[in-house]
TrEMBL record:
Subcellular location: Cytoplasm
Binding-site residues for NAD(+), renumbered to this chain: G106, V107, V108, G109, D110, T130, T131, K143, K152, C170, L171, D172, T173
Protein name as catalogued: 3-dehydroquinate synthase
NCBIfam families per record: aroB
Origin organism lineage: Bacteria, Bacillati, Bacillota, Clostridia, Eubacteriales
EC number: 4.2.3.4
Gene (name only): aroB
């Protein structure tokens, strides 16, 4: 098992290894020794696959367990589901020394993490991500949130987990579309921080080949994010580089009402557009666009997604990197090196409008 130490305001470790799910009890007891009661939050898709193994491991270490299940899908990241979790956690008799366990993908991690951040003004929580996207990205860094009608992740907090347990064996049960969804975030790390990772993914070129190297791939992504988060925990500077492809990508997700297109698909198309925006701004070498496009296609990720102009302008207006009338657009100087480009919102929309006409 590989270990990464994340030295943020609430230090914790990331444990990565096949079979680590069956060691959840031992690992949790080490990380949260004073907890008596644990509420496991999972979804309807993960429940039949991994809940029994996780609960058994935790109970063997003397934890009293409550299991709460939400419907699978983005719609569960809502204020309504959050209130249900709060009420059931309190009915279970949780105290400030108890903890929440998030067992599932990014939706479960965000929702359960936000419940933990706000219950009793903050209780410990453990991330056990079961999708590629959550293992390489959303489970690390302490961003937790729910969606509002106005958009994704607009109500949230920074609340670092007490432990992250990553079992790459969970990826064996993922549908191909969900695996590709996570590959968008893996490719993102190669684009912005690690050209060697980008080149490795290019050489692999398929799910089967990536899975042969999956522990190293997950470790590399978590290590890259760990370094960024430690330097910029509150997302005021360097950490914004992790949003490469997300400004336009969120518009694509919004165009499908967060149902037609997955987060990874939106980010993939968003990275393609961001690379082209970088070329228009004279920052990104033109050949970089083709390199990104070819790698996205290898993992069945879209280069473009239909999006009404009104939806694009709405999403750009809601971007969390906005500061007044300006936005920090993330572009590439070259593969493996991203930079901020602060620009007026109207300037960005003008460039996007030109791209619409092509």
């Amino acid at each position: 098992m590989k270990t990464l130490a994340v030295n943020t305001s609430r230090p914790y470790e990331i444990k990565i290894g096949r079979g680590s799910l069956d060691q959840a009890g031992v690992l949790c007891r080490q990380a949260i020794p004073n907890a008596r009661k644990l509420t496991i939050v999972t979804d309807s898709r993960v429940l039949p696959l991994y809940l029994a193994r996780t609960a058994d491991s935790l109970e063997q270490m003397g934890f009293q367990i409550q299991c709460l299940t939400v419907p699978a899908g983005e719609a569960s990241k809502s204020a309504e589901q959050l209130v249900i979790l709060w009420e059931k956690m309190m009915a279970f008799g949780m105290t400030r020394t108890d903890a929440v366990v998030a067992l599932g993908g990014g939706v479960v991690g965000d929702l359960a993490g936000f419940a933990a951040a706000t219950l009793l003004r903050g209780v410990d929580y453990v991330q056990i991500p079961t999708t590629l996207l959550s293992q390489v990205d959303s489970s690390v860094g302490g961003k937790v949130a729910i969606d509002l009608r106005a958009g994704k992740n607009l109500a949230g907090a920074f609340w670092q987990p007490s432990l992250v347990i990553i079992d790459p064996g969970c990826l064996d049960t993922l549908p191909d579309r969900t695996f590709s969804d996570g590959m968008a975030e893996v490719i993102k790390y190669g684009c912005i921080l690690d050209r060697k990772l980008f080149e490795l993914l290019n050489r692999c070129g398929s799910r089967v080949r990536v899975m042969e190297r999956i522990v190293d791939v997950v470790y590399t992504c978590c290590d890259l994010k760990r370094r960024v988060v430690v330097e910029d925990e509150r997302d005021t500077g360097l950490r914004q580089l992790l949003n490469f492809g997300h400004t336009v990508g969120h518009a694509f997700e919004l165009a499908g009402h967060y149902e037609t297109w997955t987060h990874g698909q939106g980010v993939a198309a968003g990275m393609n557009w961001a690379a082209q925006l970088g070329v228009e701004l004279g920052v990104t070498p033109p050949e970089t666009v083709e390199c990104i496009q070819e790698l996205l296609k290898k993992f069945d990720l879209p280069l473009d997604i239909p999006c009404p102009w009104e939806t694009m302008t709405e999403a750009v207006g809601l971007d969390k990197k906005n500061a007044g009338d300006h936005i920090s657009l993330i572009v590439l100087e070259k593969l493996g090196q991203a930079v901020h480009r602060k620009m007026a919102r109207d300037e960005l929309l003008g460039l996007l409008k030109c791209m619409y006409g092509r």
